[in-house]
Amino acid sequence: MKFINNQHIQGRVTEQHRDHYKVICTHGEVQAALKGSLIYDATLREALPCVGDYVNLRYNDSGPSIIEAVLPRHSKFSRADYSGHSLGHVKSNREQVVAANFDYIFIITSLNKDFNVNRIARYLTQAWQSGGQPVILLSKADLAEDVDIKIAEVMNVAPGVPVHAISSHTGFGLEALEEYLQPNKTIVFLGMSGVGKSSLVNTLMNESTMEVQAIREDDSRGRHTTTHRQLLTLASGAMVIDTPGMRELGIYDADEGLSANFAHIEALFLDCRFTDCRHETEPDCAIRAALSDGTLSTEQWEQYQALVRENKYLDNKAAFVSAKRAKFKAIAQHHKGKGNHKK
After folding, report:
1. Structural contact between residues 149 and 64, judged by C-beta atoms closer than 8 angstroms
2. Which of 203, 202, 168, 204 is CA-nearest to residue 185?
3. Is 138 helix (H, G, I), strand (E, B) or coil?
4. Under 8 Å between Cβ of 141 and 167
5. Residue 100 pairs with which residues in a beta bridge?
6. In this predicted structure, what is the pLDDT of residue 327?
7. What is residue 321's predicted lDDT score, i.e. its pLDDT?
8. 186-190/104-110 β-pairing
9. Strand 133-139 relative to strand 90-91, pairing
10. What is the number of alpha carbons within 13 Å of residue 205 lying toward its C-beta?
11. Which of 74, 83, 21 is closest to 49 using CA atoms?
12. I need a surface site. Which of 66, 67, 163, 319 has the fewest CB within 10 A?
C-alpha cells in the first residue's frame, strides 16, 4: 500500500458496513478499514467507529485508508445490543453506538395505527442520555384526523421537548424544522420502520436519495428501507444521520436519561416523609398524593417504573457478564501459565 507521507489526517465517518467504512476528508469521500488493533482488541468493541465519528485516518490514494483512532465524542446515541453475543449461558447486553457527534435527535413516529406514546417515552429516555437535544416529529400528519389530540398526548409524556406534526408528502409543518437544519449542525433520525424517515430525507434533500417502501395496510408497519447508517449533507449545510428502523430499543446505561425525562416524578421523591419510601403504603408519600389528585398520571408512573426496572436489570446483567468475562480470562491465563511451566 502507498500512504501519502504516512501522516494522519482527520475525517468523519459517513457510512458503516460491518468493518468497512466511508470517510469524508480533505481528499473527498474515501473507503476505509480499521487498524488491526481496533478489530482484535475486544475491550475496544464499544469504541469502534460509527457514523458521525471523527477519526484519525492514514490516507491511501490507491486503496482503503486506515482508521487508526476514534476521536472523543461530544454526543452518542446507544442502545443495548442483543445480537447474540454471549458468555457461558448468559447473553450479554453490550453497548451498540448508533450515531455520534450530533446536535439534535429527531425521534420520528407516524400518526397512523402504529402511533405509540410509550415507545416515544422510551426513545426519549435514551435520547436524554445521549447529550443531544431531542425533538419529536409526528409524521404523516396528512393522514390523521386528530393531530391536535396526538400532539397533546405526546407533550404530556415529553414536557419541555419540541413536538412538530409534519407531512413529507404535502410539506405541512416542515418550515418548523428550519431552526434545526442550520449549517454545521448534525441531526440523527431515529424511529421504527415505516415512520417516514427516508421520505423526510428525500424531501429535505429535494431528491430521491433514499429508497422508500410501502407499509403494510393491516398494522401500518413498514419494512426497513434504510439498510445501513449514513451521514448526508443538506443544501442548508446541515448534516443528517439516517438510521435503519429499530424493531426494539434496548435501554442502555440510562440513569441520566431517566432523571432528565422524568424529572417531574423524581422531584416528588424529595417530598416523601421517608427517604427510602417505596411509594406503596407509606404515610405522607408524595407520589401517592400526586396520583390521587391527578397531578401525576398512572400511565406516567407505571412507565417510569418499567424503565427503571429495565435499566437496573441491564446494569446488573452487564456487571455479571463483566465479572464472568474476567473470571474466564483469569482461568485461561492460569492454564496458559501451567502449560508454559511444563515446557
Report:
1. no
2. 204
3. strand
4. yes
5. 76
6. 46
7. 44
8. parallel
9. unpaired
10. 18
11. 21
12. 319
One-letter amino acid at 305 equals Q
Place of cell 453475543: 85
Distance between CA 260 and CA 178 in Å, rounded?
26
- Which of 94, 11, 24 minimizes the C-alpha distance to 325? 94
Task: Write the CB contacts of 154 (distance below 8 Å, at least 6 apart in sequence).
Answer: 117, 120, 136, 138, 163
For helices 147-157 and 117-130, give the axis angle rounded to 10 degrees.
Answer: 50
Q: Could you tell me the three cell numbers for 291? A: 396520583
Q: Per the structure block, which three cell numbers stand in for 156?
A: 404530556
Tell me the mean pLDDT per 10 residues along the chain, length 343.
62 89 94 82 68 94 90 86 43 71 94 83 84 94 90 87 94 94 94 82 70 42 54 92 63 60 82 89 91 87 78 54 48 53 51
pLDDT for position 218: 43
Q: Kind of pairing, strands 86-87 and 90-91?
A: antiparallel
Q: What is the dihedral of CA 48, 51, 56, 60, to 10 degrees?
A: 110
Give the list of residues 6+ apart from residue 244 with CB closer than 8 angstroms, or none: 193, 224, 226, 227, 228, 229
Q: What is the pLDDT of residue 182?
A: 95
List the beta bridge partners of residue 94.
81
How many residues are given for the chain? 343
Per-residue pLDDT at 18? 75
109: number of Cβ within 10 Å? 24
C-alpha triplet 199, 194, 127: angle, nearest 5° = 90
